[in-house]
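Module 6 notes. Inverse folding takes a fixed backbone as the condition and produces residue identities as the prediction. Think of it as a translation problem where the source language is geometry and the target language is the twenty amino acids. Below is one complete input and output pair. Work through it position by position during the lab.
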């Protein structure tokens, strides 16, 4: 099958949509329009979005719509299962570590302790009856770990309404949704490459590397996914350099320090859930990774892996996805 592609920059990422060439280009406008609508309404970085208003009025209730309440309720539910290592009120710690500063410095233990007092998703109050939300004074919600995947999942639902039965959406490599069957080569977090291809050999992203499974440049493994999503978290390209040490952007709400793991990959039906879980799992030990993935598997189909600081890979229910199986 022949495909057509459009790429646009949204949610601080290049969003790449690939659909059969038989569809008119106007379909792209319809699909990207959904992403733009979610960005405008729910992105914490978008001026006057519902989340932006909640942040700017911390300590007071803010009128919201039903969708905002549904989003927050689902996030809070997953946060409870993940055990506090995923928290959308993490922004005070992110700011403290200097991700918005020109010259970041290592924060003191006292400042970390103080910032941690503001990081607590349990203090988000949702009044469903009156359609309003309140966070504690000086708390701040950040949507970066879920809003892109939420928007893409909503867009894929529209794809299916249109009748598109074979497509792939690549949201900057961190969230990938496949309609029909596609293959992904999981890249080594220490290597500067990424390959994404169709199982039947149709390349999605072409590099100088081969397309026939594991290559000589130390890729981790190849998987195939069908009508599902693959979400991944790593800190290879998003970090601060403080005292010649790399400090990643995924910070543990419990410790207040950046996680030392290398990568997490999650396969779920819901890209929205997958992005949340991949971020929360990034802060876990292998033992907790298995424990929490077990709990999550009671509610949804889920598979994944964690690569710890030493580079050891821990798999959870991944066997059926490996190519050749």
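Target side of the pair, the amino acids:
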């Amino acid at each position: 099958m022949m495909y057509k592609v459009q790429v646009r920059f949204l949610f601080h990422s290049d969003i790449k949509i690939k659909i059969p060439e038989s569809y008119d280009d106007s379909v792209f406008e319809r699909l990207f329009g959904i992403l733009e609508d979610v960005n405008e309404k729910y992105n914490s970085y978008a001026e006057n979005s519902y989340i932006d208003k909640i942040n700017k009025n911390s300590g007071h209730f803010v009128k919201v719509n039903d969708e905002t309440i549904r989003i927050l309720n689902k996030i809070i539910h997953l946060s409870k299962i993940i055990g506090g290592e995923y928290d959308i009120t993490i922004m005070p710690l992110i700011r403290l570590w200097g991700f918005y500063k020109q010259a970041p410095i290592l924060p003191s233990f006292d400042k970390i302790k103080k910032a941690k007092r503001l990081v607590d998703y349990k203090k988000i109050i949702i009044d469903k009856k009156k359609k309003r939300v309140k966070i504690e004074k000086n708390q701040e919600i950040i949507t970066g770990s879920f809003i892109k995947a939420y928007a893409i999942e909503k867009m894929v639902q529209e794809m299916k309404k249109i009748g598109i039965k074979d497509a792939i959406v690549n949201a900057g490599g961190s969230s990938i949704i496949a309609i029909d069957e596609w293959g992904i080569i999981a890249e080594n977090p220490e290597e500067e490459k990424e390959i994404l291809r169709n199982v039947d050999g149709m390349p999605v992203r072409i590099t100088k590397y081969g397309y026939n499974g594991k290559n000589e440049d130390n890729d981790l493994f190849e998987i195939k996914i069908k009508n599902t999503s693959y979400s991944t978290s790593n800190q290879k390209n998003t970090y601060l350099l403080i005292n010649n040490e790399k400090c990643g952007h995924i910070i543990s709400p419990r410790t207040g320090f950046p996680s030392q793991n290398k990568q997490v990959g999650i396969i779920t039906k819901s890209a929205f859930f997958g992005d949340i879980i991949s971020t929360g799992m990034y802060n876990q030990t292998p033992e907790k990774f298995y424990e929490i993935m077990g709990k999550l598997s009671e509610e949804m189909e889920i598979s994944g892996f964690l690569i710890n600081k030493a580079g050891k890979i821990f798999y959870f229910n991944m066997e059926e996805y490996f190519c050749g199986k």
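Reference fact for the lab report: The chain is about 30% helix and 25% strand.
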